[in-house]
Amino acid sequence: MTVDLTTTNVLLGILATISVLEVLAVVALFAGGFIMFRRLMNVIEAIEERRIAPATARLNDILDDVKAMTDVARRATERAERATATGWWNIFRRA
Asked: Model confidence over 54-88: pLDDT tens digits?
C-alpha cells in the first residue's frame, strides 16, 4: 500500500506561504511604525522650537524679574528688622 502525500505537501506549502506573508506583514508594520515615530518626533521638535522655546525664554525672564524683586524685598525686610532691633524709635520718645 502506497501513501499519497500530495495533499499534505500542498497544505504544508500553503501554510509556509502564509507564514512568509505574515512575517512580511509584521516587518511592514514595524517599518511603518518606525517611520511614523520619526515623523512625529520631527513634528514635536518643530513645535518645541516654534512655541515652547520662546515661551520658556519669556518665563525665564519673568522668573529673573521675580527673583530681583524678592531680593529687594528681602533686603528691605532685613533693614527693617535691624532698625527695629536697634530701637531707633526710642530717639523720638526722649525728645
From this structure: 999 999 999 999 999 999 999 988 888 877 776 65
**Residue 3 CA: distances (Å) to CA of 9, 13, 28, 29, 65:** 12, 18, 41, 42, 92
Residue 22 grid cell: 505574515
User: Distance (Å, rounded) from C-alpha 51 to C-alpha 53?
Assistant: 6
Residue 73 CA from chain centroid, whole number = 35
As given in the structure block, the three cell numbers for residue 4 are 499519497
**Grid coordinates of 59:** 518665563
Q: Give this prediction's pTM.
A: 0.55
List, in sequence order, the alpha helices (H) in 1-95.
6-47, 53-86, 90-94
